[in-house]
């Protein structure tokens, strides 16, 4: 089934995926935008899994201070190259993640950071599994996977910190890893 360029353009604007990826997804979905979006999302997961072992030594540190200056957060978001670190999409993701930390007060980056047998304790406190504050139909991990599939590089949240005025200590999550990323 031939797909119109307007439909490809609409899917590309909606997902940020490449033109050919959008065309293939629309052909597979027989022109159904919602189904094509789901296909691209599934492909993004596969792409992210392939790139997960790549070293991430570049990136940005983004901060967010909530209005009223009573809560603040910092996030270190890493990628493979400084070129990607300078992209507006990457910087926007870093800003949104810092805002997420300020709003949701996670304690762990991923489920792997939980102590053994603490799965119940970590519910809602695992950053990558939290629903995104601006679109609760997607998780933080979904946002990262979407950008990985768009830019073609591994992206990883390395650490974050959250500060609240009047709190005796900051919430800092910096997993002790032996990798050199």
How many DSSP E strands? 6
CATH C-level category of the largest domain: Alpha Beta
Order of helices and strands: HHHEEHHEEHEE
Summed up, the domain count is 2
Report on this structure.
The protein is an alpha+beta fold. The chain has 2 domains: 5-51, Helicase, Ruva Protein, domain 3; 58-173, Elongation factor Ts, dimerisation domain (Tetrahydropterin Synthase, Chain A, 2-Layer Sandwich). The chain is 40% helix and 20% strand. The chain has 6 helices and 6 strands, in the order αααββααββαββ. Strand 5 and strand 6 form a beta hairpin. Helix 1 crosses helix 2, helix 2 (19-28) crosses helix 3 (33-51) and helix 3 crosses helix 6. The N and C termini lie far apart (45 Å). The model is unreliable at 177-181 (pLDDT under 50).
Would you spell out the secondary-structure blueprint of this structure?
Layout (H helix, E strand, L loop, with lengths): L4 H11 L3 H10 L4 H19 L6 E8 L5 E9 L2 H4 L2 H17 L26 E2 L2 E5 H12 L3 E10 L6 E3 L8
Antiparallel strand pairs: 1-2, 2-5, 3-4, 5-6
Please summarize what this structure is.
By secondary structure, the chain is of the alpha+beta class. The protein contains six helices and six strands, in the order αααββααββαββ.
Task: Describe the structure using short key phrases.
181 residues; Helicase, Ruva Protein, domain 3; Tetrahydropterin Synthase, Chain A; two-stranded antiparallel ribbon; 20% strand; elongated; disordered C terminus
């Amino acid at each position: 089934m031939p797909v119109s360029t307007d439909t490809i353009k609409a899917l590309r604007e909606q997902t940020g995926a490449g033109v050919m990826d959008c065309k293939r997804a629309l052909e597979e979905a027989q022109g159904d935008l919602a189904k094509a979006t789901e296909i691209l999302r599934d492909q993004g997961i596969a792409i992210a899994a392939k790139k997960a072992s790549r070293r991430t030594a570049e990136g940005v540190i983004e901060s967010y201070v909530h209005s009223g200056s009573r809560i603040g957060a910092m996030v270190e978001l890493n990628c493979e190259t400084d070129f990607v670190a300078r992209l507006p999409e990457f910087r926007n993701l870093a800003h949104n993640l810092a805002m997420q930390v300020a709003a949701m007060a996670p304690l762990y980056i991923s489920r792997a950071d939980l102590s053994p047998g603490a799965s119940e304790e970590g519910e809602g406190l695992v950053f990558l599994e939290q629903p995104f504050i601006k679109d609760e139909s997607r998780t933080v991990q979904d946002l990262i996977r979407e950008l990985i599939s768009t830019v073609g590089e591994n992206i990883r949240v390395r650490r974050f910190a959250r500060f609240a005025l009047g709190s005796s200590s900051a919430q800092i999550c910096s997993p002790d890893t032996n990798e050199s990323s």
